[in-house]
Write a structure and sequence with these properties.
With about 270 residues, this protein is an alpha+beta fold. The chain has 6 helices and 18 strands. The chain has an 18-stranded mixed beta sheet that branches.
Length: about 270
């Protein structure tokens, strides 16, 4: 008789939203022990979501890694939010109101605040970047560009208005050739409920357009905070699914806050 494979808890969570089928879906796989990167990459490809989070539980800081369908990434906001949401919702950390993750970007702490989860992330401040002809051609928005910045992960492009941002149809093949994780495009909001709007394109990482990108707000927060002279901001990511991210600015950190909803509970054969 063939042995019965171990069953690993697997969830899909819509992050940065309080409604199912909105925000950014992430898979969360709870591991009983560390697994090799090839296996995790295979699972992430099978899930085919923008990110799959893999968590190894422990009594101290828990190990957390994130994979797109094609690569491992150093920082992911929505899959971190999704993982913290599952830990709080399932009672895997009974009675706790915070959790600490060990990640490729250092220790990340999440706090439960009523229906919101706050995440303490590193600030990824942008600096002015040289204009890239390839980027301008790929975005098809050179006439609307206000500024071009860059941090260690992404380009940040401010364009003239929210309407132009929503109408963008970039050339993903050209964007994929740029030497960055992704391209953040942003504008002042024309909706009084939000301070800024954004979109995020990362075809080089296997994601043409990410629905809601927490890590991009590590850059967007400091950028708009300086322009608007505010330390508390609300951003709306204007993808098809859409999502809301609250940002609080600290000297070298940002506090990202979002809501999340579980849409699937299953088990994965360990393989």
């Amino acid at each position: 008789m063939l042995p019965v494979p171990r069953q690993l808890p697997l969830y899909v969570v819509d992050a940065f939203t309080d409604q199912v089928f909105r925000g950014n879906p992430a898979a969360v796989c709870i591991l009983d022990s560390p697994r090799d990167a090839h296996w995790m990459q295979s699972v992430a490809a099978e899930m085919n979501l923008s990110e799959t989070a893999f968590l190894v539980r422990s009594t101290g800081a828990m190990q957390l890694r994130w994979f797109t369908p094609t690569i491992e990434v150093d920082l992911c906001g929505h899959a971190t939010l999704a993982t913290a949401h599952i830990l709080f919702e399932t009672g895997l950390i009974p009675g706790e109101k915070h959790v600490v993750f060990e990640t490729a970007s250092g220790k990340l702490t999440c706090f439960k605040r009523d229906s919101w989860i706050e995440m303490d992330f590193p600030a990824e401040r942008p600096v002015p970047a040289d204009h890239s002809a390839d980027l301008l051609v790929a975005l098809k928005a050179d006439g609307a560009i206000v500024s071009l910045m860059r941090n260690r992960l992404d380009y940040l492009v401010e364009i003239a208005d929210a309407r132009s941002l929503r109408r963008l149809k970039p050339d993903m093949g050209l964007l994929a050739k740029l030497p960055v994780r992704g391209i953040i495009v942003t504008a002042r909001s024309n909706d009084p409920d939000f301070d800024f709007v954004s979109r995020f394109f990362a075809p080089a990482a296997g994601i043409n357009e990410d629905p809601v990108t927490g890590s991009a707000h590590c850059c967007l927060g400091p950028y708009w905070g300086e322009i608007l002279r505010k330390k508390e901001l609300i951003g709306f990511q204007a993808s098809r699914r859409g999502g809301i991210v609250r940002v609080s600015l600290c000297p070298d950190r940002v506090i990202l806050a979002g809501q999340a909803v579980t849409v699937l509970r299953a088990h994965l054969a360990a393989g």
